[in-house]
Amino acid sequence: MRGHNPLLAGLAGRCPNCGEGPLFSGFLTVAARCEACGYDLAKADSGDGPAVFVILIAGFLACFGALFTQFSFDPPVWLTMIIWLPLTLFLCLGLLRPMKGLMLAAQFANRASEARHDGQD
């Protein structure tokens, strides 16, 4: 079942093993097993990686947009806040799930779970 790209499957919220079953059982809760192929998804852990990427991407876009708006059109500060704070929130929430799926799929594609050490050197 390796005829698909696991990174694209993770980005779409699908199982990185088969590309069919859902990767998430909630908004950010990873499913215990893939419904389609039975792959154990519970061992996957993305850590803080997705949040870091979302902060960097959304922060850049929101700051650039707010500064561009402020310097180009010079609206009142309250209008800039009313426009850009909700957009930043929606941008962060919209990016978080795909980034988590992408990070989990990258772990799968690089077999990161096999590289763990049990404290032995």
Roughly how much helix do the residues carry, as a percent range?
Answer: 40-55%
How many strand elements?
Answer: 0
Q: Provide the number of structural domains.
A: 1
In terms of structural class, how would the helical and strand content be classed?
A: mainly alpha
Order of helix and strand elements from N to C terminus:
HHH
Q: What is the tally of helical segments?
A: 3
Q: Over all CA atoms, what is the radius of gyration?
A: 19 Å
Distance between the termini: 35 Å
Low-confidence stretches: none
Major beta sheet, specifics?
Answer: none
Looking at the structure, what is the overall shape? elongated
Summed over residues and divided by their number, the pLDDT gives a mean of 91
Strand content: under 5%
InterPro entries: DUF983
Transmembrane segments: 51-71, 77-96
Keywords: Membrane, Transmembrane, Transmembrane helix
Protein name: DUF983 domain-containing protein
What does this protein look like?
This protein is mainly alpha-helical. It has one domain (6-113). The chain is built from 3 helices and no strands. It has helices at residues 6-11, 49-73, 77-109. Helix 2 (49-73) packs antiparallel against helix 3. The longest helix is centred in the last third of the chain and has 33 residues, at 77-109. The two termini are 35 Å apart. The relative contact order is 0.18. The model has no long low-confidence stretch (mean pLDDT 91).
